[in-house]
Amino acid sequence: MKRIVLVIPLFLIAISTLWGQANILNAKVPQEIGRKTPQQIASDNSKPLPYPYVDDKDILWSIEVWERIDLDERFNLPLYYPVDSVSTTADRRALFDVLLSGIKSGQIKEVYADSYFTEKLSPEDLNEVLYYVDTTDVGKEQFNYEGKVDEEYIRKLSITPAEIEAYHIRGVWYFDSKYGELRYRIIGIAPVAYDLAAQANDLDAELVELFWVFFPDARDVLHKYNAYNPRNAARPFNFDHLLNGRFFSAVIYKTSNVYGDRAIKEYIQEDALRQLLESNKIKQLILEMEEDQWNY
Question: What stretches of the chain adopt beta strand conformation (E)?
Answer without folding.
Answer: 59-70, 111-112, 131-135, 154-158, 164-176, 181-194, 207-209, 212-214, 226-227, 237-238, 251-255
